Amino acid sequence: MQLSDRVTGLFLVALGGVAAYGGSRLPPVPGQQIGPEVFPMIVGISLAICGGLIAAGVGRRYENEAEAELTEATGQTEDAPDAAEPSPSRWRELWVLLPPVLLIFYVYVVDWLGFLPTAAAIVLVTSLALGARWRLAIPVAIVAPLVINLLFLQLLRVPLPSGLLPLPWIGLP
Amino acid sequence: MASRTRREILVGGGALAAAAAVGAGSASAQAYPTRPITIICPWGAGGGTDATARIVASVMERELKQPVNVVNRTGGSGVVGHAAIAAAPPDGYTLGIVTVEISMMHWQGLTELKPDSYTPLALMNEDPPGIQVNAASPYKTVKELADAIKKAPHGSLKASGTGQGGIWHLALVGWLTAMGLKPDHVRWVPLNGAAPAMQDLAAGGLDLVTCSVPEARAIIEAGKARSLAVMAAERNPAFKDVPTLKEAMGIDYTTGAWRGFTAPKGLPPAIANTLTAALKKVNESKEYHEFMNNRGFGIRWADATGFAKFMDEGNKAMGVAMKAAGLAKG
Amino acid sequence: MSEIAQGFGLVFQSDVLLAILFASIYGLIVGAVPGLTATMATALLVPITFYLPPIAAIGAIISSSAMAIFSGDIPGALLRIPGTPASAAYTDEAYAMTRKGRPELALGIGLWFSALGGIFGTLALMALAPPLASMALRFSTFEYFWLAFLGLMCATLVSRSSPVKAIASMLLGLLVSCIGIENPAGTPRFTFGNTNLLGGIEVIPALVGVFAVSEVMRAMLTAEPPKPERRRLGSILAGQWALTKQYPKQQFRGNIIGVLIGVLPGAGADIAAWVAYSVSKRFSKEPQKFGTGHPEGLIESGSGNNSALAAGWVPALLFGIPGDTITAIAIGVLYMKGLNPGPTLFTEQASSMYALYIIFILANILMIPLGIAMIRASSHVLRAPRASVMPVIVLLCAVGAFATGNNLFAVLTVAAFGVIGYVMERNGYPVAAMVLGIIMGTMVEQNLVTSIMKSDGSIIPFFNRPVAAVLAAMTIAALLWPVAAWGLKRVRAQAA
User: Fold this and answer.
1) Residue from the list C26, C189, C222 with its beta carbon closest to the beta carbon of A155
2) The sheet that has B187-188: what strands, in order across it?
3) From the CA of A7, how many Å to the nearest CA of chain B?
4) Sequence spans of domains, chain C
5) What is the mean pLDDT of chain C?
6) Cα separation of A97 and A80, whole Å?
7) Phi, then psi, of C364 in degrees rounded to 5
8) Distance (Å) from the C-alpha of residue A161 to the closest C-alpha of chain B?
9) pLDDT digits 0-9 by tens, B78-120
10) CB A151 within 8 Å of CB B13
């Protein structure tokens, strides 16, 4: 999701504007001279101004200088994925959404399915997506959830949902 | 990373679990409870409500012969946890510690939940607010302070103790209304709890602070602030010199922040009775008294019926005060 | 003198020492897991302290929190995932050092200067508690406003990006902090009727999202970086003595900043780390090296956050006012064990106070061997295949966020901030500046609004209170400095 400064800057202008407008519509509070609307309006308007400056290209020269210094200091370019893998296709770029999608999967499934199977599925998918062989992915998917479950249950006393497959050898929920 | 430090985790975990599992006994022959019980705490780990829930849980474990775990369900300024208690299955295995906010939040339109959304079990604690001023303040008695407030122009004196619409704000509103003044005659400065308010009082930024006596205790003992009165029926045993409002100026106004235990609605009466009896045992135990006295928390007991009545009356009084202060919605 | 001897007697007992040892190991582990903080480590010890004698209970709290603050640096340096908000300020610097093949140096700095900072903070606590406490009690909302404002200005210094983008990121953080009902007016803002949003966006899930999840997201597109050559990790403390001699000013300044910020209730190790790092860069002779794996800023901020932790106990012990969330919990334990905070604690229970000091020093000394063991154990992660480390991180993100409040909404927050963090990084917006905005937002608004309320709309008290005036002058100087420098540069360029 590499966008031009013009796009991100204009997005910030819009976001700041919406925040300031949304803030201005908050009802005042009896007995307070400064209501809940003041701070969001200040922040929203400042954000819109910054967005405008970014869209106009202010400060870009500084970025280039900083990059040059970094290259000079470390002898390598900042981890530019495009350099490592020349121009990933649009389709390929969708893969980055896998981790957040798996977290959302966790939220909606864990209570029903239980922690261990859900966690095993997440680990397996992530591991394979990162290019692991089944020989590595399957043991990690079995061991990691068990260890984490034990860690949270015993060390932190946070019970994780049992669902269809509770922790086999512990009598606690 | 976790898999790499497994050995330490197991060693450390085992030791701590062994220390924590004191009192978890064997399963008993009676019908209820046959498995561990969970107490939901709507506030974060480490706070006063959390500590109260945990000490009660550890004594309850002994009475019920089953592990009792405290689970913090935070979020939404208490709304999330209170909702989780009400929504749990009414089987006696999920209980909750409910706080004064349950009689306030619904007036503000933050939730549909009210005190009668639960099966009450027992009231365990109430802390009345005190009225504190800076040690260098000219007001030596609450009467002098009240006279000064009456004389002062509207909004010129500043008070705090918690955020806008919090329990200590309403305590001030109730006191001002009882004196025949407008609810915002003294301007409320919303701060993030009693500790910052007491600090600001000591820093000279406020004229008075209403918050519970245990919250104000250390600053008072450090000689930086004075407590002039408590809005309670009786004096606090730890501060015998501080009179009640009724003694000092004849105003019979009392309020307080309270904590009690409830279960979801529809709990079978037999289970409710078992739990109330267990909580009564907790309330009479030495550990509980020692803990509450050390923390300076007030002990107030009421059984299920008394707790229901207490919540109902408190709820109505809150409604009146919040409408007067313009804090209630609709 | 006999009280000091009694203090030693109270500490050197098998149950106290065991409690300290186990709590230290526990704190090290909890702090190293992304998403679990020092505050959480402390809170979860509370039920166990019910069963411990007073000195052992306090010893457990002190040692676990000190260890957790240090070990928050470990995942930050190894994986670019700060374990605690206090580490977020310098995570990029430490990670840059790891990528240069010197993870042991980055972690060694964290360990060595944390331990020394903790001891310095303890000495300040012992020698200067009353004057420091009376300074803290002069801070009203006016002074806090300036302090918070100064804190926000660190945004442009902690990252290597265009200052405009850093400020925009910081403002985004401030906007995030507007969400919820925890504002001075007690009015729900930007909650869209969602109950979970009422409490606002908490720092921890946001932090875990923008650092940890976005890091895994980036890994999805990049090839696995080459492993550092397999060699012994080297002596962790080897270079530290040389660094101590090379940067004495930075260390001392970091310690002082830590103590001064730490004693202020409500401003803890987190803010101390940000300010120390920024000060270090601002006054450095080689600011261009910051962010490339340069030790200077790490030394100053590492010294700062642990000395802040110890100094945070000053207002807690003298007035029962919590310096941060950790001491808030500790105060509860003090009361429970009959060690009521207040000046009398220093006079009537002097032997317990000495015991407390001894535990502080002991914990910071113990931190070195235990920390070395922890660093050695956890640095295996650098040699493990990425396809086995990243999945575990995703899992820890989910469970760690969940554990803070047993609320699955926090996991959704993590996912959302993962996407936000990824997009921001790709476009040159520093995520650390946004985290700073989220941390400071409530403090800025709270103190701005309540100050104006207290003064009935006048801005004079922002300048005429003595401490406020000093802070105001510092803020204005810091604001004008870049403008003046830029102007001077232009004048010189034209003259040339």
Assistant:
1) C26
2) B187-188, B158-160, B208-212, B129-134, B225-230
3) 34
4) 2-222+239-464
5) 87
6) 18
7) -75, -25
8) 13
9) 888 999 999 999 999 999 999 999 999 999 888 889 999 999 9
10) yes
Q: Residue B297 pLDDT > 60, yes or no?
A: yes
Q: Check: CB of residue C9 under 8 Å from CB of residue C372.
A: no
Distance in Å, alpha carbon of C209 to nearest chain A alpha carbon: 9
- Suggest the residue from C28, C140, C142, C319 to mutate for an interface test with chain B (most B CBs closer than 10 A): C319
Q: Which of B142, B41, B55 is nearest to B97 (CA)?
A: B41
**CATH number listed for the domain at residues B32-127+256-324:** 3.40.190.150
The strand pairing partners of B122, in sequence order, are: B261
User: Please, what is the average pLDDT of chain B?
Assistant: 86
What share of residues in chain C are helix, strand, coil (percent, to 5)? 75, 0, 25
Q: Is A27 exposed, middle or buried (0-12, 13-18, 19+ CB in 10 A)?
A: exposed
Between A85-99, B29-43, C209-223, C419-433, the lowest mean confidence (pLDDT) is in A85-99
Closest Cα to residue C306, out of C67, C467, C483, C468? C67
From residue C221, give the alpha-carbon distance in Å to each of A82, A84, A101, C337, C395: 9, 9, 16, 54, 19
Interatomic CA distance for residues B43 and B82, integer angstroms: 9
- Can you tell me the distance from the alpha carbon of C351 to that of C357, in angstroms, rounded to the nearest whole number? 10
Q: How far apart are CA C139 and CA C447, in angstroms?
A: 11
Q: Assign residue B209 a region (left: φ > 0; alpha: ψ between -120 and 50; beta: otherwise).
A: beta
Q: Cβ distance C80 to C215 under 8 Å? A: yes
Tell me if residue B253 falls in helix, strand or coil: coil
Q: Do B218 and C396 touch (CB under 8 A)?
A: no
If you measure CA to CA, which chain C residue comes closest to A62? C162
Q: Sort out which chain A residues have CB atoms less than 8 A from B44's CB and list them.
A: none
What burial class does residue B136 get, using C-beta atoms within 10 Å of its C-beta: 0-12 exposed, 13-18 middle, 19+ buried? exposed
- The C-alpha atoms of residue C165 and residue A55 are separated, in whole angstroms, by 11
> How far apart, in whole angstroms, are the C-alpha atoms of residue C49 and residue B190?
34
C456-469 as b/e, with b when 16 or more CB fall inside 10 Å?
A: eeeeebbeebebbe
CATH level 3 topology of B129-249: D-Maltodextrin-Binding Protein; domain 2 (3.40.190)
- Residue found by looking up tokens 């940890």 in the block: C212
Tokens 């365990």 found at: B124
Which residue in C58, C335, C449 has the most chain B C-beta atoms within 10 A of its own C-beta, making it the best mutation to test that interface? C335
Helices (H), ranges, chain B: 6-20, 48-64, 79-87, 142-151, 167-178, 194-202, 213-221, 245-249, 269-284, 286-295, 304-324
CA distance A98 to C251: 42
Closest residue in B to C139 (Cα–Cα):
B203
Candidates B74, B189, B296; nearest CB to C453: B189
C414 touches chain A (CB under 8 A): yes
Q: Are the CB atoms for C111 and C368 separated by under 8 Å?
A: yes
Query: In chain A, what are the domain boundaries?
Result: 5-84, 94-155
**Chain C neighbors of A155, CB-CB under 8 A:** 26, 29-30
DSSP B98: E
Q: Which residue from B19, B47, B80 is facing C407, i.e. has the nearest CB?
A: B80
Q: What is the pLDDT along chain A (173 residues), one digit of tens a residue?
A: 678 889 999 999 999 999 999 999 888 877 677 888 999 999 999 999 999 999 998 877 777 776 666 666 555 444 444 444 445 567 778 889 999 999 999 999 998 899 999 999 999 999 999 988 999 999 999 999 999 988 888 777 777 887 776 665 544 44
CA nearest to B72 within chain A = A158
Q: How far is A172 from chain C (nearest CA, A)?
A: 17
**Bridge partner list, B227:** B132
Q: Tell me where in chain B the CATH 3.40.190.150 domain(s) lie.
A: 32-127+256-324
